[in-house]
Every structure is written in structure tokens, then in C-alpha cells.
Amino acid sequence: MATKLKGKTALVTGAAQGIGAAIARAFVAEGAFVYVTDLNDELGHAVAAELGDRARYLHLDVRDESQWQRVTGQILGERGRLDVLVNNAGITGFEQGVVAQDPEHARLEDWQAVHRTNLDGVFLGCKHGIRAMRPAGAGSIINISSRSGLVGIPGAAAYASSKAAVRNHSKTVALYCAEQGLAIRCNSIHPAAILTPMWEPMLGDGPDRAARMAALVRDTPLRRFGRSEEVAAVALLLASDEAAYMTGSELNLDGGLLAGSAVTPAVIE
Ligand SMILES: NC(=O)c1ccc[n+]([C@@H]2O[C@H](COP(=O)([O-])OP(=O)(O)OC[C@H]3O[C@@H](n4cnc5c(N)ncnc54)[C@H](O)[C@@H]3O)[C@@H](O)[C@H]2O)c1
Q1: Mean pLDDT throughout 5-22?
Q2: Is the CB of 62 under 6 A from ligand 1?
Q3: Is residue 106 part of a domain?
Q4: How does pLDDT run across 159-200, given as a tens digit for each residue?
Q5: Is residue 31 within 8 Å of residue 23, measured between CB atoms?
Q6: Would 215 be classed as within a structural domain?
Q7: Is 204 in the pocket of ligand 1 (CB under 6 A)?
Q8: Quick check: is 214 in a domain?
Q9: Spatial distance between the Cα atoms of 68 and 85, rounded to a whole number of angstroms
Q10: Which residues form the signal peptide (predicted)?
Q11: pTM, 2 dp
């Protein structure tokens, strides 16, 4: 049996589907006990049930500080420790349909709603994660940012802004923990175009689906979507003691997209 996370207790937010569920599966496969948390209780329970007695589902809306207090308190009560926290829950702002998210037309409430989940949720997670890890003096916090946190996105301003802030906050948390003499590491992962339910509203299920998918990855050097399992593999590395010297770092997982740019010439001119 794989044992990279043997004896560790992990909490994954937004783990009812997509990348979060894949991370929960990878962690359990490596011997961790995983708290699968989400807003979507039905899907969250199903993921935990599939993982058996090495997982448990708890409702956690990452925007609500009292829920963070309840969940981390319960984990310390039941397991006596929290070793790994993955702040994965995130929204694009397009979940309820197409709304303006560009810098000129976005409504303040839509801008704030995206930041409440993507940024406030990560702030609260780091805050209560550090507190829960402090008794052991060690741990790994993994924040799922995005390629959109590294470049501007005209049609998704709040998403890009919130993910950029997550990238920076991860470094602040890393330095703070080091300064406190704690072996609590904090790193960010920056995926791009990972095929999850997040993309469904944009892809549709009609005859144009394949063409839309091809168009979305046209500028990706590897010319395909990434898989949730490929993000989970990197989260697993950051969660494990093998990455004990990694903190404040950012890992891109984007099929090579950020290695160049859309205007990179094919030949030297
Ligand atoms: N899929 C991609 O291409 C991609 C690329 C870059 C970054 N990301 C990031 O990866 C993370 C996971 O994305 P995904 O593609 O699996 O998305 P997804 O939409 O498939 O899953 C997101 C999960 O988060 C949950 N969630 C939403 N708001 C929440 C809240 N307030 N509290 C708790 N849970 C909440 C949802 O219920 C859902 O289960 C997100 O932070 C996303 O921004 C995804």
C-alpha cells in the first residue's frame, strides 16, 4: 500500500467534485485520513462514501468563519491533529449563468461574491489552518490559485484578481509561519484548463463541444485539457514530507501555457 501520507490528517475544501475530489482520492490512496468538505452535501457525502473509512464528509462554506471554527475544532477533537489543508474551493462567477465580469461592466456585488469565496475563503482557511496546526508545529497548506492569478483576464476580472491575491497571500503565510518558528509550509498551485465540471457551462453538450474544447486549448503547447488527477499528483507532493523544504513557492500546471505566450513566433525571425 502507498504510504506517502501515512498517519496524516487532511482537510480539502470544495472536494465534492473536480480537482478537490481528485485530491481527496489521491490523499486517501497514500494513507491519509481526509475530511472531504463542500457546500454540496449530496456530492460531498458520495465522495466520502466512495473513499470508505479513511474519509469523512463535513459541510464547510469557506466564506463563513464560524464554520471554519466548527470544522477545525471537530477535526482536532476527533483526530487530535491537522497535517494538511488544501484550500481548493473556488468559483468563476459564471456558475449562475453569464454575467459581466469585465473591468468596465462587472457589478460590485458580482466582483465581491467571487472574492468572498476565492480570497476570503483562502484567508479564513489559512488562519484557522495555522491555528489547528500550531500545536504540532508543522503542516502543509496548499492553495489552489490559477494561471489566471499570473496574467490578466479581461472577461473574468474578479477571478483573476482573487487568484492573484491567493498567490501573494500564500507567500505571506509561508513567511509568517517561518518567522513564527513553525514548520508549517504554504505553497500555491496554478492550474490552467483542467477538465472539471467548472467548464461545463462554457463547453455545453451539443455537437460543438469538441470544437469548443479544441479552441480552448489552441494556445496550450500540449494541446489538451489537463486532468484533475494531474493536479492531485502535485498536491500530493506538496502535502508529503518529501517537499519539506518547499514553502512560499508556486507551481504552474498548465500544459506549458505560461512557458511562452500566444505571440511566441514559431521560428526565430
Ligand atoms: N478547472 C480548471 O481549469 C481550473 C484552473 C485553474 C484553477 N482552478 C481552481 O481549482 C479549484 C477547483 O476547481 P474545479 O475545476 O474542480 O471546480 P468545480 O466547480 O468542479 O468544483 C468546485 C467545488 O467547490 C465547491 N464550492 C464552491 N463554493 C464553495 C464555498 N463557498 N465553500 C465550499 N465549497 C465551495 C463547489 O460546490 C464544487 O464542489 C478552484 O479554486 C478553481 O478556481 C481550476
Answers
A1: 98
A2: yes
A3: yes
A4: 999 999 999 999 999 999 999 999 999 999 999 999 999 998
A5: no
A6: no
A7: no
A8: no
A9: 12
A10: none
A11: 0.97
